[in-house]
Write a structure and sequence with these properties.
The complex is a heterodimer of chains A (232) and B (487). With 232 residues, chain A is an all-alpha fold. Chain A contains eight helices and no strands. Chain B contains five helices and 31 strands. Classes of the chains: A mainly alpha (232), B alpha+beta (487). At the A-B interface, loops of A face strand 5 of B.
Chain lengths: 232, 487
């Protein structure tokens, strides 16, 4: 991509963005234990894991791509792929072959609603493209704060919705449980379980999340800059 | 070395074992509605694992058999998974299949038999627990080790190439400085890869050790003390395996054949004395109390091996093993269901297939001439004759069964307590039948004849002593036989 131009470069750019979103899916899957668990959406660990994983990919790919809304595009593709999986898999019939079966299975069980990454990605694009001067480290700090603020602003209230009966439908999949989950335990998936046991632990966790997010942005910048220099 | 250890796969499975020692396979001969079957279930040695199920149709025409594993924890045990059809042999007399057992503890395999006479159902209790760690197959280990090397070398050379010439235009050769940068990148990435592998290995080993402690089954330790007169006190202790499962399923003891514990005392090393006794719980109010006392009959001095059978509330049977040195004990005569036999060589003709029992009668092992083979299920049939060698048709139920048999390997590494219905403890069978909504099968109790038969497959080759117990005129008679089991 770096040594091509015009239409060819645009095509390669799309391939880069698509690959970036696949990488994002992969890494978010690694963190699924925390960010796939909506009951942790009011815990610092959720924002720590998200802040470590997402910005490095979004920023790295955006820097390499050079497109104006690259991070937003990558986050959109991730959201689209994840939603498609969530909505398509349950259309296929399936049943549990292993016991004990606590929830009877009639179709494939989806992974759960994707993380709302788009607002954070938009903030990253805005900060990286619009904020001039002061150098990359300054930008990383601002982008880190912005990314986390956007995440909190969207995901914190969204968590209330996910815990509510309104999310227990095919769109949000909060009523989908694996065979090993007993109906008597469903309520556990519909209430917050604080990961940090004390208020102090929570705030320390949030501080770590902020630092991790800024670091992740900075590493993404270094990675993106290096990828931009690749000539062969 | 590190990588080799990394490549060792530790899958912990729980295997189902009965109230037996070293004899994990489950045999059950029973009616399933109008059909009569002999089922053998070979539980996995690791949990989760696959239990092999084999059904032999002994009467009736059968079209198909389906099997479903159900976990029994006495609580919220969920629903069974979808049933699997067993594969029939060409003549539809043999069916084979397999089921996954996902947890340690008590399982039942529900069997549904269909044929021209309709549908018959049956539930077989299968205890599941991990007996060992399954090592990785050598070939697979070598393959994975090779792939790991390939990946490691690949990532190091990619890092080197990227640092050396990633930024150069196509066609230009890297300068000495580029090369130095490349070598530096390779060194750093090699160190990183080695660190990741070392940490991975450490993590894996720590996890494996944890799993091993939590998964591999051992019977509760049994401490036995002699009061100096005629009483033994037995105390069941708890080990980690049991402690960590207390919350998941009922560890309460339930009676099997009317007794909470069946204790078998065998004099070591030749098994020339055999006692089948029933310890009493010290505090019957406390269902979980593990303290028992045992009034001994008159027994000669010696070192005794003790096997103690119990059944848990979920139908999970266990056999605890202990040893004790005893002096000559002057005890009372046998009462209730207690019994014993002098199995010394002078008295029993263990080398032949007959054994004297009671006052002048004898027990005959009806061997069909075929040699016994390890792992092969067969009916061991015994005929009881009176003093005139006429069929003794006066057998009475002994603890609710036509007969009881205990098979012990010469080195005491195998102990199995078998009934005419198979190796399944009756208490476990009742729980399984009740759980599946089936009536209790009493087929083994129909009209006692002078013959008792026990379906069993010896788990290992070697020499075994068989103690076969029946009841006549209110007295328990024990036949003693020796068997050699070939490979």
């Amino acid at each position: 991509m770096n040594i091509s131009s015009g239409e060819r470069r645009a095509k390669f750019n799309w391939i880069l963005l698509y690959n970036g979103s696949l990488l994002l899916c992969l890494l978010l899957m690694l963190g699924y234990e925390y960010i796939g668990d909506q009951t942790l959406m009011h815990s610092a660990i959720y924002y720590r894991v998200l802040g470590m994983i997402a910005p490095v990919v979004l920023v790295g790919i955006a820097r390499t791509s050079g497109r104006r809304w690259a991070a937003t595009i990558v986050a959109s593709i991730y959201t689209g792929l994840w939603l498609a999986g969530n909505w398509i898999f349950p259309l296929f019939p399936a049943h549990a072959k292993l016991g004990p079966v606590f929830t009877p299975i009639t179709h494939m069980v989806p992974l759960g609603f994707p993380v709302l990454l788009l607002p954070g990605a938009i903030v990253l694009d805005l900060v990286l493209n619009r904020l001039s001067g002061r150098g990359d480290t300054w930008k990383a700090v601002v982008a880190g704060i912005g990314f986390m603020a956007a995440n909190l602003a969207v995901n914190w209230p969204f968590a209330y919705f996910m815990m509510s009966p309104h999310a227990r439908n095919w769109v949000f999949a909060m009523n989908e449980f694996g065979y090993s989950f007993a109906p008597s335990q469903y309520h556990l998936a519909w209430e917050f379980h604080p990961y940090e046991k004390t208020r102090a632990e929570f705030w320390v966790g949030m501080l770590i999340a902020l630092i991790a997010t800024a670091l992740s942005v900075r590493i993404g910048m270094l990675w993106g800059d290096w990828m931009r220099r690749i000539r062969r | 070395m590190r990588a080799c250890r990394l490549a060792v796969l530790i899958v912990m499975l729980n295997s189902s074992v009965f109230a037996h020692v070293g004899s994990p396979n489950v045999y059950l001969e029973s009616d399933a509605g109008p059909y009569h079957l002999l089922l053998s279930i070979n539980p996995p040695a690791m949990i989760p694992g696959v239990a092999q199920v084999q059904a032999r149709v002994t009467s009736g025409t059968v079209n198909s058999i389906s099997i479903t594993p159900v976990y029994v924890n006495g609580k919220d045990q969920g629903l069974p998974p979808t049933p699997d059809l067993m594969q029939p042999s060409a003549d539809s007399q043999w069916f084979t299949g397999k089921v996954w057992l996902m947890e340690s503890g008590s399982w039942e395999v529900r069997v549904e038999v269909s044929g021209p006479q309709g549908i018959g159902r049956l539930a077989v209790p299968v205890p599941a627990f991990a007996r060992r760690t399954l090592p990785m197959q050598k070939a697979l280990g070598i393959l994975l080790f090779g792939l790991m090397l390939l990946l490691s070398i690949g990532i190091i050379s990619i890092a080197g190439a990227a640092a050396r010439e990633g930024g150069l235009r196509g066609g230009t050769s890297p300068s000495p400085q580029n090369r130095r940068l490349g070598r530096l990148a390779m060194a750093i990435s090699a160190a990183l890869v080695a660190t990741v592998l070392a940490l991975g290995n450490w993590w894996w080993n720590a996890q494996a050790a944890d799993l091993k402690q939590g998964m591999i089954y051992s019977a509760p330790p049994l401490t036995v003390a002699f009061d100096g007169k005629d009483q033994l006190s037995l105390r069941m202790n708890e080990n980690f395996w049991h402690k960590s499962r207390k919350d998941q399923w009922s560890m309460t003891l339930i009676p099997d054949h009317g007794h909470l514990m069946h204790a078998f005392l065998l004099r070591m090393p030749t098994m020339d004395r055999f006692y089948h006794l029933h310890p009493e719980q010290v505090d019957p109010e406390q269902a979980n109390d593990g303290s028992f006392t045992l009034k001994l009959p008159s027994i000669p001095a010696g070192k005794y091996k003790i096997f103690a059978d119990i059944v848990r509330g979920t139908g999970f049977p266990e056999t605890m093993v202990s040893e004790i040195d005893l002096p000559d004990v002057k005890g009372e005569a046998f009462s209730g269901d207690d019994s014993g036999v002098d199995a010394s060589v002078e008295r029993s003709s263990a080398t032949t297939n007959t054994s004297p029992v009671g006052d002048g009668g004898r027990m005959v092992w009806e061997q069909d001439g075929a040699a016994l083979k390890a792992g092969q299920v067969a009916w061991l049939r015994f005929r009881v004759e009176d003093a005139d060698h006429k069929p003794a048709n006066d057998l009475e139920p002994y603890m609710g069964m036509a007969g009881h048999a205990e098979f012990v390997k010469s080195d005491f590494s195998v102990f199995a307590h078998i009934h005419p219905a198979g190796s399944v403890p009756m208490a476990s069978l009742m729980i399984a039948q009740k759980d599946s909504g089936l009536p209790m099968d009493h087929s083994s109790m129909h009209a006692l004849t002078n013959e008792v038969s026990f379906p069993y497959g010896f788990p290992q080759p070697g020499d075994y002593r068989l103690f076969v117990q029946v009841k006549r005129h209110g007295e328990v008679e024990t036949g003693v036989f020796d068997a050699h089991v070939g490979d």
